[in-house]
Design a protein that fits this description.
Layout (H helix, E strand, L loop, with lengths): L2 H8 L3 H20 L3 H9 L3 H9 L2 H18 L1 H21 L3 H29 L3 H28 L9 H21 L1 H8 E3 L4 H10 L1 H17 L4 H9 L5 H26 L5 H21 L5 H29 L5 H7 L3 H18 L2 H21 L16 E3 L5
Subcellular location: Cell membrane
Keywords: Cell membrane, Membrane, Transmembrane, Transmembrane helix, Transport
InterPro entries: MFS, MFS_dom, MFS_trans_sf, MFS_Transporters
């Protein structure tokens, strides 16, 4: 990072740092144990792969819809109570996972994990926009949050394995503890800092869920962007479980080492290159970054489709290219939503971005069907074609309309009771 970035980071309000550090520790402890949940379900209940997959993904659609509603609710009721509720649900869910002994309790706990995350994510992103008014600083905060989430996701499994925590159910309590500390951090941030007290008191009295739906329905540019980004997540997610299915069915040599190396390449690419890429592309507008990322993502799909099964270095190269696209696209999507959202509907707009998870959750099912009926290369040629569809959707947006926003200073705001 250059000196100006460090100055901007140093100027963030304390509550923003609670969000940033909470994102890091929450995601890190989450991934210390979550990747091994499939092992627990298999060893405890002897479930098959399809049953485990169904349990792990069943709540995705409901969580996406809930995230949208909660984002809109945070515009009307304020961010504080929504964030505290989401954090408490996450903590309770992982306590349940630590002590669950029956399959229904496991399913309930995993559903609550999805619900807690969908409640937490939209108002957390929106609160950064509420507190950081300078656009460049706000976008740096969103970029830095994505970076810390990836560092946590990359380090979590490594720390878990090194500490001998893998596949031990009781260690879900560590994740519950991290969310308890995050809850305490939010209580301090909202009650103990001036920026937190101001953020807690600001609410939009004119907001309603029906009104928000009407606004979003008339924002044709935003609707097309949501569709395009759902497809982008769908394409990217084929590097996850679908690629593992392809390599497993095709009996790729040294499969375990290959998959482990691909995970490592993905994590290192994001952690090491996100900010150098941001520096390199700082003169490029948001759409330019999106188009660049899409082009790189398309190249990665072609590489996956054509790579010889026994070329280990080729799989590493293809993973690096797709990870490069991720490092450009995913943080830019958050910046894109922030720029499109009016201040009084920022929570609603970030809530609508919860629908991105539909693309992610549909990827294993569709990818598995295509691999079973046709082949792995056919799947990635299809994804390459979908990159073209996403590109055309973005090219369509300049011709579409957006609502004429009422100036933010004219919006009716009310004072909520002061935090106790």
């Amino acid at each position: 990072m250059d000196r100006q970035w460090w100055q901007r980071l140093h100027g963030f309000p304390p509550l923003v740092w609670v969000i940033l550090l909470g994102s890091f520790f929450g995601r890190g402890t989450y991934f210390m144990v979550w990747p091994f949940l499939a092992i627990l379900l298999y060893e405890k209940f002897q479930l098959g792969a399809a049953e485990i997959g169904l349990i792990l993904s069943a709540s995705a659609v409901g969580a996406a819809l809930l995230g949208f509603y909660v984002g809109a609710l945070s515009d009307r009721c304020g961010r504080r109570n929504i964030l505290l509720t989401g954090t408490a649900i996450n903590g309770f869910a992982f306590v349940l996972l630590a002590f669950a002994q029956t399959l229904p309790v496991f399913i309930l706990a995993m559903t609550l994990c999805s619900i807690g995350r969908s409640i937490w994510e939209p108002p957390a992103s929106a609160l950064i926009g509420d507190l950081v008014r300078n656009r460049q600083s706000r976008e740096l905060a969103l970029q830095f949050r994505y970076f810390l989430i990836n560092v946590g996701a990359a380090a979590g499994p490594i720390v878990g394995v090194a500490a001998g925590l893998n596949a031990q159910q009781s260690t879900f309590g560590l994740t519950a503890l991290s969310y308890l500390l995050l809850c305490v951090g939010f209580l301090w941030g909202f009650a103990g800092t001036e920026s937190g007290r101001v953020a807690h008191r600001r609410r939009d009295a004119g907001a309603s869920f029906r009104g928000t739906l009407s606004v979003l329905k008339n924002d044709h540019v935003f609707l097309v962007v949501i569709l395009a980004n759902v497809l982008t997540l769908f394409i990217y997610a084929q590097m996850d479980s679908s690629l593992v299915q392809y390599l497993t069915r095709a009996q790729a040599p040294a499969l375990v080492q290959l998959i482990s190396a691909m995970i490592l390449v993905n994590a290192l690419t994001i952690v090491l290159l996100q900010f150098p890429l941001l520096q390199l592309m700082r003169g490029v507008d948001v759409n330019g970054r999106i188009f660049t990322g899409l082009a790189i993502l398309a190249v990665g799909q072609v590489w996956f489709a054509t790579n010889p099964l026994d070329w280990f270095a080729g799989w590493m190269g293809a993973t690096f290219v797709v990870s490069l696209a991720e490092a450009i696209l995913f943080p830019t999507m958050s910046v894109q939503i922030d720029r499109m959202a009016p201040d009084h509907l920022r929570g609603s707009y970030f809530g609508a971005s919860s629908f991105y998870s539909l693309g992610w959750s549909a990827a294993p099912l569709v990818g598995g069907i295509v691999i079973q009926w046709w082949s792995g290369p056919a799947l990635y040629w299809l994804m390459f074609s979908l990159c073209g569809v996403v590109f055309l959707l973005y090219r369509l947006t300049p011709r579409l309309s957006r609502p004429a926003w009422q100036p933010v200073e004219d919006m009716p705001m009310v004072e909520a009771p002061a935090a106790s």
